[in-house]
């Protein structure tokens, strides 16, 4: 394929990746921003979302579109509830101590993974997309007769992938509206800025924490439900989203939702684009080193303010 | 989806071991205990991938092993002694793999170890097998055994190695599909084996690899790699492993749309995946290597039929209990065949106990022809005692309306190559 | 001789004595646990004593392992110099990573170390022609001989592991009881105040990273030599998480804790895998329970309850 169409294809694919990553990373960012804890089990909530989406579409049956809509609504809700319960039962009791939270969430990670292996099994299972039309895309070239439009071999996207981008955009906007405009958002922001003062003003901090932990997990599950018609649900699929979300949250600046979105798009896209220029494993290696170097020389992330 | 419940004697868990031990009234920790009583079981330590990345294969290796052990026991066991499978999960991790071997040798008093699939677990465990002087029968299809990297205690008598498989494909690909090949493979050792061995083999047939596309491990999205396929490509040669294989194949179909070159794949790309999955329609007419035909063929042998029944696989290669639970049919036959080789080896060596382990190795090394039979349902094989590697026929099948029809069976000779090692020169 | 020194010498003596009485299986297990405990002790220098939480220590273990393994396999270096090359590789890597990563702190430090470690893993795959990629390679028994001793034989292997373990155990004990060691603890407790008191915090942190990385490299090289395998799985994320778990289980900031944690974790997995296939579930539940009820780990809790002298 020529360079131009190749780059366009890599960018489109990158955008799909970035969309799912945005949702997952927003969840992690929210938890980190408000609660100041690192949730190592975040990737497992992502996986749980995908696996539950498979179960739900399997149980609902009927036309793929209907089953998928049910999954899209129910899977994040279930995962959010599970996460909130884990917060209430475990994290609350260890007082959100940063190190103990890491160990406890590693424990949760193993528990969720193993329970999934025991109930769902080790196979990767697909969910039928509600719709999936291949859309060929045109490209242009400057020939002797001026600009010519043609349809390069392989340059295409599917309608479902476009929907993923759109759905992520919509969710991001909704989250922004909640955070900026609603009373709930006000409470969340107040808790984030100063836990003690918020408590003094009558904010039920414990319940807010459980809610935030659940919401963060639900966002990851939503991302997973969206991606599961493209990829498959598998009990070990949580590792990559966790690593990438981590990177995104740090690069974006801790707790900054705006930064998280920009970083997710940047990282999702660059992963695709770098692979155009380098051999893939080398590309991954360089991208990883690049992220590390960005942090080394700008530890507060791209959008974080310098710590006082 | 839960673990199969099996008969106590052969159920591959430690609970069963304890039960078995209680039944024969023997303490586990009797160092240097000499086996004499005829009802004393032969203990085969089964290193199984129950967790980790290999779990999908491990489950079917488990089922096949259980079935083979039952069949062997029903036919009178080995030298009149029952065969007992003692399974330990290795988590698909080389470090745990080595630990599990120690457990077999020193705690469970196993006679031999057996059953490993993933190459890195084999290579991480094999040094320990030699140090423990524990015969180690792997079912991995890796070239590591025949390449001479391992040792005299490690053997692969049940499955043809990847070098031989790949080499046997080249004549068919060049003669029927095209000469200009683009290879897509995972960017780690397994993929590199395909790249190197097929590249050499296709050049011998007058063909050429026009592009090599290596996909990094843990990749979950593939479309962006396909533009590297040159337009002149006549055949796509694909092989992929891991949980993302279905995404890989689907995205390949979406990429090509209606106008694809010829496609030849290793079934690894769709092992344990239902061919009738939506999104795979484009594969119709394309070709696959199969280790053992997943779909029962019109000329199915009595041996394959028997094997299918015993393992619990229907004529579409799925579990008889759940038609959506597709087996790893192209690999798991090797568990069945390896256990039968172990039985034959032990009987030839007059195996009585751990003191005869060296004799067992020598007896297996002395094997050559393994005719197609109930013990070898995949087809006839030739074992090379010097390289510890077996060579068998390979199947090339075409996708036809959501099932695979065998179009060509390679000869054993197609897959032979000069020896790279002579393990028999190493001390036992 | 203080109680602390006595305790650690006692542990070393007990491990030496166990060599002669343990049944074969547990004998082998203990040799491996001692090597992995060295890994954990190295981790503890940085995490337990200096308060630097790294998520990338697999890279130091792998640097030691591959430095040793490649030297032997590719360049025919004899065992002892190859082992030292492995340690040197880990030392250099720790120095470079330390200089770069210490510009960050907290969660950013965790991520930077994780990224560096992931890069090393990808490099091992990318240079598969030399490293044999994910499969790794076995070291022939004939290579694993030193001065007529066969390191693959159970007794010599045990002695070698015990020797390395003892050196590192006493070394870390000496370090944490030294002036420098106390500065590290001061940094962990309050970095700003330590700086105000006139200590060069950055230099001390760098020392901690380098000492920690080098010890972990020694563990990696020792694993390769003693168990005959060099593989990429040791550079992957789980092997960065394991030392953290072992240290937290045994008690971060205690000298003996990492060994206790490694031993405990090994037998937890080994015994539960005999009882159920779901042994990772047992491990997960154990971890959650430990954080709930024994937050300072096994030895840390002992120190809280009476054994205040435990270093």
Structure description:
The complex is a heterotrimer of chains A (308), B (428) and C (311). Chain A is mainly alpha-helical and 308 residues long. Chain A contains 11 helices and 4 strands; from the N terminus they run ααααββββααααααα. Chain A has a domain at 16-138 and 149-236. By secondary structure, chain B is an alpha/beta fold. Chain B has 2 domains: 14-160 and 329-392, Response regulator (Rossmann fold, 3-Layer(aba) Sandwich); 162-290 and 393-415, Response regulator (Rossmann fold, 3-Layer(aba) Sandwich). Chain B has helices at residues 14-24, 55-74, 94-106, 119-132, 162-177, 189-204, 245-256, 302-311, 329-349, 357-365; strands at 42-48, 83-89, 112-114, 136-137, 154-155, 180-186, 208-215, 235-238, 262-266, 287-290, 369-370, 381-384, 389-392, 395-400, 403-409. In chain B, the strands form 3 sheets. In chain B, strands 7-6-8-9-10-14-15 form a 7-stranded mixed beta sheet, covered by helices on one side. In chain B, helix 3 (94-106) runs parallel beside helix 4 (119-132) and helix 9 (329-349) packs across helix 10. Chain B is globular and about 65 Å long. By secondary structure, chain C is mainly α. Chain C has one domain (3-235). In chain C, the strands form 2 sheets. Chain C has a two-stranded antiparallel sheet. A two-stranded antiparallel ribbon of chain C has the order 2-3. In chain C, helix 3 runs antiparallel to helix 4 (79-101), helix 3 packs across helix 10 (201-227) and helix 11 packs across helix 12. The two termini of chain C are 14 Å apart. The model of chain C has no long low-confidence stretch (mean pLDDT 90). At the A-C interface, helix 4, helix 9 and helix 11 of A face helix 5, helix 11 and helix 13 of C.
- Distance between the first and last residues' Cα of chain B: 42 Å
- Note poorly predicted spans of chain A: none
Average predicted confidence as pLDDT of chain B: 86
Helix fraction of chain B, binned, reads 25-40%
**Proportion of residues in β-strands of chain A:** 5-15%
Report strand % of chain B: 15-25%
The CATH architecture designation of the largest domain in chain B is 3-Layer(aba) Sandwich
Strand order of the largest sheet of chain A: 1-4
Number of DSSP helical runs of chain B: 10
Could you give the order of the helices and strands of chain B?
A: HEHEHEHEEHEHEEHEEHHHEEEEE
Please give the CATH class of the largest domain in chain B: Alpha Beta
């Amino acid at each position: 394929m020529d360079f131009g169409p190749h780059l366009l294809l890599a960018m489109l694919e990158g955008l799909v990746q970035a969309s799912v990553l945005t949702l997952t990373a927003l969840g992690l960012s929210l938890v980190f921003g408000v609660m100041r804890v690192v949730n190592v089990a975040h990737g497992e909530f992502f996986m749980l979302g995908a696996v539950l989406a498979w179960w739900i579409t399997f149980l609902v049956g009927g036309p793929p579109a209907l089953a998928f809509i049910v999954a899209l609504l129910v899977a994040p809700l279930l995962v959010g509830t599970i996460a909130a319960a884990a917060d209430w039962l475990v994290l609350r009791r260890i007082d959100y101590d940063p190190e103990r939270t890491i160990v406890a969430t590693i424990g949760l990670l193993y528990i969720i993974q193993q329970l999934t292996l025991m109930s769902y099994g080790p196979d990767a299972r697909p969910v039928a997309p509600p719709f999936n039309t291949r859309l060929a895309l045109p490209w242009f070239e400057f020939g002797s007769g001026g600009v010519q439009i043609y349809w390069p071999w392989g340059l295409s996207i599917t309608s479902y992938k476009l929907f993923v981008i759109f759905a992520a955009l919509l969710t991001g906007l909704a989250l922004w509206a909640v955070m900026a405009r609603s009373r709930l958002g006000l409470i969340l922001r107040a808790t984030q800025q100063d836990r003690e003062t918020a408590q003094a003003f009558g904010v039920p901090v414990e319940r807010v924490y459980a809610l935030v932990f659940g919401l963060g997990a639900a966002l990851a599950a939503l991302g997973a439900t969206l991606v599961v018609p493209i990829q498959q649900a598998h009990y070990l699929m949580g590792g990559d989203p966790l690593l990438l979300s981590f990177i995104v949250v740090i690069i974006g600046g801790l707790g900054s939702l705006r930064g998280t979105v920009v970083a997710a798009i940047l990282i999702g896209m660059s992963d695709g684009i770098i692979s155009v220029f380098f051999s893939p494993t080398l590309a991954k290696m360089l991208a990883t080193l690049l992220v590390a170097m960005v942090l080394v020389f700008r530890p507060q992330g791209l959008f974080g303010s310098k710590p006082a | 989806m839960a673990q199969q419940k099996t008969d106590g004697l052969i159920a591959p868990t430690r609970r069963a071991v304890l039960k078995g031990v209680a039944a024969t009234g023997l303490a586990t920790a009797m160092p240097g205990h000499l086996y004499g009583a005829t009802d004393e079981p032969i203990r085969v330590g089964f290193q199984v991938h129950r967790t980790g990345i290999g779990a999908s294969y491990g489950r079917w290796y488990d089922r096949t092993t259980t079935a083979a052990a039952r069949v062997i026991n029903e036919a009178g066991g080995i030298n009149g002694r029952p065969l007992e499978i003692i399974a330990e999960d290795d988590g698909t991790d080389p470090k745990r793999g080595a630990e599990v071997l120690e457990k077999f040798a020193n705690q469970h008093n196993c006679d031999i170890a057996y059953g490993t699939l993933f190459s890195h677990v084999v290579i991480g465990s094999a040094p320990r097998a030699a140090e423990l002087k524990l015969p180690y029968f792997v079912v991995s299809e890796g070239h590591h055994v025949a390449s001479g990297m391992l040792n005299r205690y490690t053997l692969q008598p049940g499955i043809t190695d990847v070098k031989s498989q790949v080499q046997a494909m080249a004549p068919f690909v060049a003669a029927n599909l095209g000469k200009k090949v683009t290879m897509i493979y995972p960017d780690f050792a397994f993929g590199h084996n395909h790249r190197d061995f097929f590249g050499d083999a296709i050049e011998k047939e007058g063909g050429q690899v026009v592009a090599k596309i290596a996909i990094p491990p843990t990749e979950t999205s593939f479309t962006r790699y396909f533009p590297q396929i040159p337009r002149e490509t006549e055949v796509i040669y694909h092989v992929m492993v891991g949980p993302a294989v279905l995404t890989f194949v689907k995205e390949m179909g979406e990429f090509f749309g209606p106008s694809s070159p010829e496609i030849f794949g290793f079934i690894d790309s769709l092992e344990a995946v239902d061919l009738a999955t939506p999104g795979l329609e484009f594969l119709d007419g394309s070709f696959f290597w199969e280790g053992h035909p997943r779909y029962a063929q019109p000329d199915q042998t009595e041996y394959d039929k028997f094997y299918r029944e015993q393992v619990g696989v229907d004529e579409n290669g799925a579990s008889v209990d759940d038609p959506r639970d597709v087996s790893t049919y192209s690999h798991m036959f090797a568990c069945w065949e390896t256990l039968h080789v172990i039985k034959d080896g032990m009987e030839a060596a007059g195996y009585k106990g751990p003191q005869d382990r060296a004799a067992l190795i020598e007896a297996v090394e002395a094997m050559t022809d393994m005719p197609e039979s109930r013990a070898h349902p995949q087809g006839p094989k030739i074992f090379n005692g010097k390289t510890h590697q077996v060579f068998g026929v390979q199947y090339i099948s075409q996708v036809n309306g959501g099932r695979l029809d065998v179009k060509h069976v390679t000869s054993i000779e197609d897959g032979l190559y000069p020896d790279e090692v002579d393990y028999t020169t190493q001390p036992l | 001789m203080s109680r602390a020194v006595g305790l650690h010498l006692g542990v070393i003596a007990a491990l030496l004595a166990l060599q002669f009485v343990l049944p074969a299986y547990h004998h082998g297990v203990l040799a491996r646990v001692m090597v992995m405990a060295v890994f954990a002790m190295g981790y503890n220098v940085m995490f337990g004593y200096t308060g630097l939480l790294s998520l990338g220590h697999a890279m130091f273990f792998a640097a030691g392992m591959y430095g040793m393994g490649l030297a032997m396999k590719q360049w025919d270096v004899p065992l002892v110099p190859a082992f030292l090359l492995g340690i040197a590789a880990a030392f250099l890597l720790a120095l470079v990573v330390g200089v770069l990563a210490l510009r960050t702190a907290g969660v950013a430090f965790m991520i930077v170390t994780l990224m560096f470690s992931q890069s090393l893993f990808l490099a091992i795959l990318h240079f598969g022609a030399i490293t044999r990629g994910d499969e790794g390679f076995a070291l022939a028994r004939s290579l694993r001989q030193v001065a007529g001793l066969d390191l693959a034989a159970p007794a010599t292997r045990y002695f070698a592991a015990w020797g390395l373990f003892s050196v590192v155990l006493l070394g870390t004990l000496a370090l944490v009881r030294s002036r420098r060691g106390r500065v590290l603890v001061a940094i962990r407790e309050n970095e700003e105040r330590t700086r105000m008191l006139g200590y060069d915090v950055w230099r001390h942190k760098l020392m901690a990273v380098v000492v920690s990385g080098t010890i972990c490299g020694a563990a990696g090289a020792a694993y390769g030599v003693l168990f005959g395998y060099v593989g990429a799985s040791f550079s992957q994320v789980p092997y960065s998480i394991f030392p953290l778990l072992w240290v937290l289980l045994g008690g971060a900031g205690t000298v003996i804790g990492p060994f206790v944690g490694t031993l405990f974790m090994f037998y937890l997995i080994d015994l539960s895998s005999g009882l159920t296939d779901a042994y990772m579930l047992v491990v997960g539940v154990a971890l959650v329970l430990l954080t709930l009820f024994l937050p300072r780990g096994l030895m840390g809790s002992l120190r809280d309850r009476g054994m205040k002298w435990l270093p």
